[in-house]
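Hello,

I think I submitted the 2-oxoadipic acid job twice by accident. Can you confirm which output corresponds to this input? Input:
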Amino acid sequence: MHTNVNTLFEALWQDYIEMTPSAAKVHQLLSKGSAIINDHIALRTFNIAKVNLEVLAKHFESIGYVACGDYKFEAKKLNAKHFEHPDSTQPKVFISELLVEEFSDELQSTVKGLIEQIDTAATTADDFLYSGRHWELDTKTYEALLAESEYAAWVAAFGYRANHFTVSINHLADYDTIFEVNHALKAAGFVLNASGGEVKGTPEVLLEQSSTMADKISVSFSDAVINIPSCFYEFALRYPKADGELYTGFVAASADKIFESTNVNG
Ligand code: OOG
Ligand code: NI
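Support: Only one job matched these inputs. Its output is below.
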């Protein structure tokens, strides 16, 4: 496990921009007036004991992160938790896991077959959170997973790495609203996730979010190389609670739509 928060996020970022060529360009566009501060990152996994949410969480808990919120996504069959660091300038972490037992026998046995190929020692190694795929996968299996769960197919194709980074709009000197950020992104040719509207959330729920649609990159499977959605970039504007402190949680109804930023036909 990493012992330093900064080196962990730097390694996650390097892997993420390799998967997401547009993210480096968005980063450059938004960082003209000020340094970019990350609101949060997100990771995905399956709820199988060897690699479940808690296994990923340990990598963050060992460097001081604390579990702060629980979320359920019934239609997508996911659970999630978010984690915060005592140093509030460090990014929050959103980790979700697919409830594998709620899917078909075929999906369950496919996923178990993938997870069996992981060396258990790898799950606690320094680099696990940006180690990618640990298994063989063919296109037919990917397509079969996709038919049941876009999320399952994404984890099968990309394995362990940051699914997205999130720009804190609160820290951008040149932008006051999420509409201005979205406008600048669209003017520069980036495609936003419009599921549930381009802006998810409202000032009343203390969090507004938007995201790009994931880049499509070529991924090597055992039988072919295909172009599929990789990772996306998110933008978050937080509002103060009654005590004057910015809200630090997530909003399940909004997160439900953010997940769709990696949909194949989004
Ligand atoms: C996570 C989606 C939810 C948020 O900020 O609400 C999310 C994912 O796509 O893995 O990131
Ligand atoms: Ni997010």
